[in-house]
Amino acid sequence: MKTKLFLLASLFIAQHSISQVGVGTTSPESSAMLDVSASDKGILFPRLTTVQRNAVAAPVKGLHVFDITTNSLWFYDGANWINYAAQAKLGDVKSGIQTVDHEGWIKLDGRLISTLSSSQQTAATTMGLSGNLPNASDAYLVQNGGGMGAVSGSNTTTLTQANLPTVNFTGTAASAGDHAHVTDPINTATSTNGDHAHYTDPAALWTSTNGNHTHGHNAPGGYGNYGLALSNYNNTVQSTDGSPNELNVWTNPAGLAIYANGDHAHTVDIPSTLSTTNGAHAHTVDIAATTSTTAGAHSHTVNVSSGGSATPINIAPKSLSVNMFIYLGY
Question: What total of structural domains would you count in the chain?
Answer without folding.
Answer: 3
